[in-house]
Amino acid sequence: MAPPGEGRDAALLPEFPRGPLDTYRARASFSWKELALFAEGEDMLRFKKTIYSALENDPLFARSPGAHLSLEKYRELNFLRCKRIFEYDFLSVGGMFENPLKVSTLTQCLGMYDWSLAAKYLLHTLVFGSAVFSSGSERHFAYIQKIFSMEIFGCFALTELSHGSNAKAIRTTAHYNPATEEFIIHSPDFEAAKFWIGNMGKTATHAVVFAQLYVPGGQCHGLHAFIIQIRDPKTLLPMPGVMVGDIGKKLGLNGLDNGFAVFHKVRVPRQSLLNRMGDITPEGTYVSPFKDARQRLGASLGSLSWGRVAIMGMAVANLKLAVSIAVRFSATRRQFGPTEDEEIPVLEYQTQQWRLLPYLAAAYALDHFSKSLFLDLVEFQRGLAAGDRSARQAELGREIHALASAGKSLASWTAQQGIQECREACGGHGYLAVNRLGVLRDDNDPNSTYEGDNNVLLQQTSNYLLGLLACRVQDGACFRSPLKSVDFLDSYPSILDQRFEVSSVADCLDSAAPRCFPPGGLGEIHRKSRARAVPTSSVPPACPMPSSHHSPICQLCVTENSLKPQPCLCLAFASLCVW
Amino acid sequence: MAPPGEGRDAALLPEFPRGPLDTYRARASFSWKELALFAEGEDMLRFKKTIYSALENDPLFARSPGAHLSLEKYRELNFLRCKRIFEYDFLSVGGMFENPLKVSTLTQCLGMYDWSLAAKYLLHTLVFGSAVFSSGSERHFAYIQKIFSMEIFGCFALTELSHGSNAKAIRTTAHYNPATEEFIIHSPDFEAAKFWIGNMGKTATHAVVFAQLYVPGGQCHGLHAFIIQIRDPKTLLPMPGVMVGDIGKKLGLNGLDNGFAVFHKVRVPRQSLLNRMGDITPEGTYVSPFKDARQRLGASLGSLSWGRVAIMGMAVANLKLAVSIAVRFSATRRQFGPTEDEEIPVLEYQTQQWRLLPYLAAAYALDHFSKSLFLDLVEFQRGLAAGDRSARQAELGREIHALASAGKSLASWTAQQGIQECREACGGHGYLAVNRLGVLRDDNDPNSTYEGDNNVLLQQTSNYLLGLLACRVQDGACFRSPLKSVDFLDSYPSILDQRFEVSSVADCLDSAAPRCFPPGGLGEIHRKSRARAVPTSSVPPACPMPSSHHSPICQLCVTENSLKPQPCLCLAFASLCVW
Lengths: 579, 579
Description:
Two copies of one chain form a homodimer.
Chain A: H1 8-12, H2 22-26, H3 32-40, H4 42-57, H5 71-88, H6 93-98, H7 101-113, H8 115-135, H9 142-148, E1 154-157, E2 173-177, E3 182-186, E4 194-198, E5 206-214, E6 220-229, E7 242-246, E8 258-263, E9 266-269, E10 279-280, E11 286-287, H10 293-300, H11 304-332, H12 350-385, H13 391-425, H14 437-444, H15 454-475, H16 492-497, H17 505-508, H18 522-531, H19 569-573
Parallel strand pairs in A: 1-5, 2-5
Antiparallel strand pairs in A: 2-3, 3-9, 4-8, 5-6, 7-8, 10-11
Helix pairs in contact in A: 3-4, 4-7, 5-8, 7-8, 7-11, 8-9, 11-12, 11-13, 11-14, 12-13, 13-14, 13-15
GO molecular function, one term (chains A, B): pristanoyl-CoA oxidase activity
Cofactor (chains A, B): FAD
Subcellular location (chains A, B): Peroxisome
């Protein structure tokens, strides 16, 4: 391979345009091109470039910064853009199978442009499309072609007005009538209206609808998915018995039409049942490959776990955007300085670094985590498809579920807090809409809620860990898991005993030192450093607070290398300044 | 006084309309009417009722929930509403002096309706008006009458595109020309454009403009304020040499027209100088009651400290609104339950209580703090006006500055985090725009930035505290301040030695117990409670984590009284679940 910056790489990774960031870029201790190639790989970089170039050159994707689109106009534009993405055909079905990571890369590229677009595209193809593909059988595969040609437009209708987290308690009913070989789909009241359904508000013609399946005689077989036409594809008028509409403005993602639907005794053919998990004979007998309803529900909702891993990637993309905006601004914004005439970039201030750089690091760490977990999930799904019923496969499923539940919460909250910090670190300019931090915050926000509320999901991970703990306590088993994510717990007592051992203030600034505290707190470092390492003339005043009240980064303690010593924040507001 | 709920109180505090919250309200252990009278006082409750009744009955203030106003239309409406507030004349200048707390009450009432309205009103009357009144002299008082009749409409133009925090470095110039007895107001380049100025975008006719004052010969006397006409009050067309416009959409407060202005050698009469702090003779000699420029700047920017105290009240109002929305929703939203058929309100879950109730408590605490600090500031200003030059007056000024700096940061961040938690605790419904949590978050957001970035302001408080500490170390002085806010520091070693000492799980749930931890952490409580207090049958499983890793509220440790025991969150995500 040619050295980065030469030959083919120069086209793939051209130099940045010259500007006020040049000074900082010239000071980098590494080649950003090598880092990009290392982190993404050439193939993926090319794929991204294809997508971005297409959008950059297409007037449909041109933006008018500062323009104030009406809700109607924005949604119309978003639908047209979604349609155009299908025309570009960046990724065929074959391509998805060949390199599944390209699916999440495409989502993130579209999201970096506009999350409403990414959501609209994703909900139609991957959520609606995958549900038809994975829950249906051959008789439903005709829909797949129509999905990719956008002859029909779909949505995934699980949530109801009164039931989100508790999906099992969904109240829409599907009563089978053998006389006509039809199901009667019905919403008992407005609280059972399907609600929040992305694409349903204005544009979906078809919906995968979850309902409680009742056989003749009145027995309920639990939640099942049906594919139901809700609008005429030509006129977009609702089908008879379907009351469908838009739920209105949201905090973000307003290019996406989230909707509601109330079904009034809507008759659909028997074949509407997506029958991979359970079917009904023409006469009305229920048949299923699964023995109990709980197992069946788990299998039919299985496609939801992809969502959590996808959300990790989305949150990371938001964090990357926000941190890039804030760090670049901080490198060019000058305020105060050593003299009245010379102001320095705010990035030079310890406080600004302390606010932003941990989020920059988090973006890299979470990016790697989300990609590797995505590939683990691909491996798991391939095992499922191949009929792997080994103990390892089952254990892998549990571990991925636990990692995706915690990882989605961690990534979405880190992005939420990171974007907020970036907004504030850019001061007033961060509050101008044109600088995008507001849109990022608004569009990232539902990542904490959908596909499982973060607080609820964390309990899934806790359950998993407590289960492992119970095995250890009862059977003396070691902490072991297929992806080795829990193995370190075997040595947690010794890990927790580790202490931060440095002998000088300079060591404190060394990122290679583990970030724990000595038994005596940072005060101990002071004492050591005063005794040994720091020349007397530059000894900072000893931090007066007891070590238990130090914030992780005590400004007074580590002023040695700073351009502008700042007072010890931990004195007054230890609880506010802990990152 | 008649018992609450009878006689005149029934009109002042009518019963709530009957509804799904009745059950919880009936269970209250106190009278909400008594609490309201205690917290606000009858006079203030009547004042609020007057304001709210007027707005409720005036069609100009009617809202269309879900309507999507264009930026132009919203700003137009906001201006008309602002004008109407003057017509209602809720509070005369005399009324302000008589009961200054009514000023912040009026601001908060308007803000609870719409912060864009409160900001527009406040910027014109209190910020622009007060600057003219406090920095000007008798020759400027003719403006005051025009301000209250809205013949002119004003803004306060300090910040420039490239200078916010570092106000001393403002670069707009005012050169005095004795030949014409005029100042030449000039912006050297676009970075010196006045920027972010509320009301300047579309509606202000006059601005208090801060500029560096130069006398003939070229000596600079530092920042001074000038009152300058920027638009024709009839046509709203800009005055010659003034390039003025709107800075565009923001994350929130979009009813307010924030603007910019570039001055190109604009000639204004000598009398435009607001000359309380310094004046110029017709011949061009500078005269000032202050000896050095630093002291003069401090005095001319003195009116800014009101802003910080006002922001505390605004943030508290936002927190009150958000917590009310979230707690009411949680009391009516049912999800999961002890059986499949019976779902319980989400407010019954420990996690939901743990997420919301501390913010409810914070709203009460900060409400009291912001009001009492406001009254302290009134006392301080009265001392200033009366010419009090005592040591106590000076010390009071320093203490109020420190409290307002930290209090503004604490209140705005607590509100920011509280609103976010409320948004998430309401799940998807919290993400619907009509439920208002998004607007609250967006409108509260700049409270962390304007009138001093929170991180910068905290250093003001740190400086104050470190100053006191230096006195103690050098002179053995006690921690003492006029408002006694620092006196507790004298006993901080013993305070920090206090330990949480309880002997049973039930004691952990007692809010009267101090919220510290025993030397052994919550694990210690477990061991004690297992040994003594809890019947063996209901002993929860011992929390397996070392005590140093417990979160403040460990779910596993305090499940005894919960409806639905939940796994120990601290095991997996101690760092995420600490409040």
